[in-house]
Design goal:
Length: 226
């Protein structure tokens, strides 16, 4: 598969939304052109914060039937939540490799549960660790902030990881998450990212649809999809 066959996907993070109005906020993002919803699940252990779990995701799926749901599992025991999240209607289960002893096994369990597989790397994790299991994943997420909090400053030096992945795995879906918006999207697209998580920049915008369009057009221009 050539680089040009990849497509830009924009997935707003609902972490910064009004969680008391989660369905309305999520639907608004989809109506604004979001390709998927990025659902941040935190356990208060792997990261200091606590967000929500599979019961909430299942309720959201009950109201939003067709959208692509990615759960970003910032949790110490990702294998514990595979079945509940599959049951909740999650499409892609993206987990952090750092607390996991047997990454290929977790990848296999996710796939057996009927979900796509994403593997996520914290900023301090060397990118070349993915060589051991990239063939078992659908996507690699490069964190461009420390996971656990919204609204952090984008880490420009993480683009070296993205470039390395794109060079070594030209057909891989590469996701970036953290501080991504109109001011930083060009660096992400230039490095080779094609799945873009954006929280504050989209949700806090007066016109979210314009921001989503800008992000998508920037990525597609670098993919050669004009």
């Amino acid at each position: 598969m050539s680089k040009a066959r990849l497509s830009a996907k924009i997935g707003p993070s609902i972490l910064n939304a009004d969680l008391s109005r989660l369905y309305d906020e999520s639907q608004k993002l989809l109506d604004s052109g979001a390709d998927y919803l990025h659902l941040d699940v935190m356990d208060g252990h792997f990261v200091p914060n606590l967000t929500f779990g599979h019961p909430l995701v299942k309720c959201l799926r009950g109201k939003i039937k067709d959208a692509f749901f990615e759960t970003h599992m910032m949790v110490s025991k990702p294998d514990q939540w595979i079945e509940p999240m599959a049951d909740a209607g999650v499409d892609q289960y993206t987990f952090h490799v750092e607390p996991v002893e047997d990454v290929p096994l977790v990848c296999r369990k996710i796939r057996e549960a009927g979900m796509k597989v994403g593997v996520a790397l914290k900023p301090g994790t060397p990118v070349d660790v993915v060589a051991n299991y990239v063939d078992k994943a659908d996507l690699v997420l490069v964190m461009t902030v420390e996971p656990g909090f919204g609204g952090q400053k984008f880490m420009q030096n993480m683009m070296e990881k993205v470039s390395w992945l794109r060079k070594n795995y030209p057909s891989l879906d590469i996701e970036v998450d953290g501080g991504v918006g109109p001011s930083t999207i060009n660096a992400c697209a230039e490095a080779g990212a094609n799945w873009i998580v954006s929280g504050t920049a989209v949700i806090g915008a007066p016109e979210p649809a314009k921001v989503i369009t800008t992000l998508r057009e920037t990525v597609n221009s670098h993919l050669g999809n004009n």
